[in-house]
Amino acid sequence: MAHFDTEYQRLEASYSDSPPGEENLLVHVPEGSKSPWHHIENLDLFFQRISFKNGFTCMLLGEIFELVQLVFVVAFTVFLANCVDYDILFANKFVNHTDSSKVTLPDAFLPVDVCSARIRDNVFVIFILIISGVFWLHRLVKFIYNICCYWEIRSFYINALKMSMTDLPYFTWQEVQARIIEIQKEHQICIHKKELTELDIYHRILRFKNYMVAMVNKSLLPVRFHLPLLGDTVFYTRGLKYNFELIFFWGPGSLFENEWSLKPEYKRGGNRLELADRLSSRILWIGIANLLLCPVILIWQILYAFFSYTEVIKREPGSLGARCWSLYGRFYLRHFNELDHELMSRLSKGYKASSKYMNCFMSPLLTVVAKNVAFFAGSILAVLIALTIYDEDVLAVEHVLSSITLLGICITVCRSFIPDKHMVFCPEQLLKVILAHIHYMPDHWQGNAHRYETRDEFAQLFQYKAVFILEELLSPVITPFILIFCLRRKSLEIIDFFRNFTVDVVGVGDTCSFAQMDVRQHGHPAWMSAGKTEASIYQQAEDGKTELSLMHFAITNPHWQPPRESTHFISLLKEKVHREAAAGQQGIIAENPAFTSTHSLQSDSEPRSLIANLLMGPPSLASLHLGREGSINPVSIGVSEGASALRSLSPVSTSQHLRGSYPSARLPRPDHPAVVAGRAMTGSGTDARTISSGSSAWEGQLSSMVLSEYASTEMSIHALYMHEMHNQQSRGEVSESVNEDMEAARTFPRSSTFPTTSHQAGAAQQSGSQRHYGRTSDPVSGSFRAQRTPRMPMGGWSEENQMSRHHDPVPEEGSEDELPPHIHKV
């Protein structure tokens, strides 16, 4: 296993969420004054249940119907296989009736004794029933436990958070989170800290998901294949994800000893080879278990898919041609510290533009074939329908009804391959609109949106529903082989990943260091972090994940107080946006990334939500004029107003303005474009008459909706701006601004929570040309030009590239028993 040697080093925590002097704090509360929620042992699970926020009744019914659904699927399948006489059902055998000659449905049911005898004689059915019974009993015990926990959450909402179940739907997650932070001072639900922060709560809810997002970002997961006809393929299903979580986080022998702590042996580097062998053996046994259970799981997947999708396909045959975000796409596009509902809301806003982009690529040959097949099938269907209208006895003819159904499905499928004749081919513009919502996109897609290679790569993120169903059906067969032959080879890389990218946060426990969103530890110099990051190529998050996640979290949680390093990065970005937006007022709009990112939003395919909330926002944003079809008019737009829209990364002042002025403000007319666009954007189906009712509950919900959409729009604009800056920096067009950023970074004081060694102090005094962070310098002009750093595997680098990317080696961690080992940060 020599080829698994890596050059990783353990990262120390970049900052502490605790105030100075509270790092080892343990809050003591007298016994008599303790509340029922004092010192909740498993805060991770507690916060996860709170974040569901669907109400006790919804969660209770969901659990009950899951149990009933399992019993129904197993019982109904066994009944169909053993208790039905299909010869009578298909009229292959006649039944003698004394009172009527018509065959009824009960005539096809076998007697009870015959049915039970057939079940007892079938060994495979008995085995299926035993496995299903054990699994159902396990789910029943889990159901009873979950109901007790849900009742506790209900009591917590009512008594601690002072939220009734009827008003719960009108509260946003940020409002619930603010109350949790407030009651920490009274109830001390966490005894290791006096005060909780927004980042603490997100860390506990998303502890394991942040690890998975980081592994996908560093190309450690999922496994990629190169198939002869399909090319590079990513296979990532719910079954495979379940096995990954079982191996890494919560299964027997996993890397974590509990919900919040990595096992001590995985924090040391001296026994990494032994741990890799142990992990490899465990993956092998889990793969063998998957292989043995493959028939049972496969049968369940087929039955569940049949019962779930057959009626939908019959009712809407074109549903298989619809698209959905793949599981791999949801992890690739996910920010660090982004909740499920935040992610799905963001991806749902980009669904329409993504569908239109994929529909742009219609094969002319396939279109001609589809038109003619639809014509022939439609002709036959028209004759059959006409005969049926003339005489309904035609339906009694054998296979007539089946033919009508199949011809209808054929026509629907063919029409899905026929493009809209009014559609305009504008892939670059559509890709910009998609980027405004999904926030992540490979660099080589820029300027290549019209190519089929880009379309095929985007299809891995945005796949057909039929492909999703097929992958889930094949998952029980393919998953064991992926675990046994592919994942085992990465066991040492996985061990190194968890050791090097795990930090202990006070009051939270072991978390993924990428989730700290620290630009200095994991920033990328090509993403506006030049001069502010000290990360090596292996510590850098790819695709600007650190910078975009930091910006998203700061905008989503406007009251969060970032550490000093992150605050400096945000303030520099705000200043740059304001400066370039102000420069656009002087006539250089066309070369401005701020204007380019905003101008790219004008597209017929764009849902009008990006502009609607600007109209509903504060007065400084209301003067943005809309052109035809809801797009920004570049002639009439006021650049100073656009600057005010881009001036702040965090909408704290905006939220205060809206909360203070909203109740006294006059609601817009129902036919106002902002209200119309807001309804189209939210998809809530709320009628305009509800707005005019003036109810306090609706006003609070509308205020929250305005704030949420303002934050969404602000994040979309900044994502476009950062991508535009990244593209210009990659082309070497922003050397002056990079120099300014580096100069500002050198004058910024170091944080007391991030000590600097003497080696770092000496390096900081040297010239910038001696610091290699994926950029090249011109010794004559002194300007820096960023260059793209390739995505590297999780192992070490090649020998020929060592000299150009050399940094001081870090000695291997010893095998001492002290935890954690004292390692100087490089």
Strand and helix layout:
Layout: H1 43-52, H2 56-82, H3 86-89, H4 112-121, H5 123-160, H6 173-187, H7 198-205, H8 207-217, E1 224-227, E2 231-234, H9 238-250, H10 272-292, H11 294-315, E3 323-325, H12 327-332, H13 340-349, H14 351-359, H15 364-390, H16 400-415, H17 427-438, H18 452-461, E4 462-464, H19 465-487, H20 491-500, E5 502-505, E6 509-512, H21 519-522, H22 525-529, H23 545-556, H24 564-584, H25 593-599, H26 609-615, H27 639-646, H28 652-661, H29 673-682, H30 688-691, H31 696-730, H32 735-747, H33 758-765, E7 775-777, E8 784-786
Antiparallel strand pairs: 1-2, 3-4, 5-6, 7-8
Helix pairs in contact: 1-7, 2-5, 10-19, 10-20, 11-19, 14-17, 15-16, 17-31, 23-31, 24-27, 25-31, 26-29, 26-31
Whole-number mean pLDDT: 74
General form: globular
- CA radius of gyration is 30 Å
* Head-to-tail CA distance between termini: 27 Å
Key descriptive features of the protein:
two-stranded antiparallel ribbon; 33 helices; 826 residues; disordered C terminus; mainly alpha
Descriptive overview:
With 826 residues, the protein is mainly α. It is built from 33 helices and 8 strands. The strands form 4 sheets. It has a two-stranded antiparallel sheet. The chain has a two-stranded antiparallel ribbon with strand order 3-4. Strands 5-6 form a two-stranded antiparallel ribbon. Strand 5 (502-505) and strand 6 form a beta hairpin. The longest helix has 38 residues, at 123-160. The radius of gyration is 30 Å and the shape is globular. The model is unreliable at 1-32, 601-698 and 742-826 (pLDDT under 50). It is found in: Cytoplasmic vesicle, Autophagosome membrane; Endoplasmic reticulum membrane; Golgi apparatus, trans-Golgi network membrane; Late endosome membrane. This is Autophagy-related protein 9. Residues 1-20, 650-672, 728-826 are annotated as: Disordered.
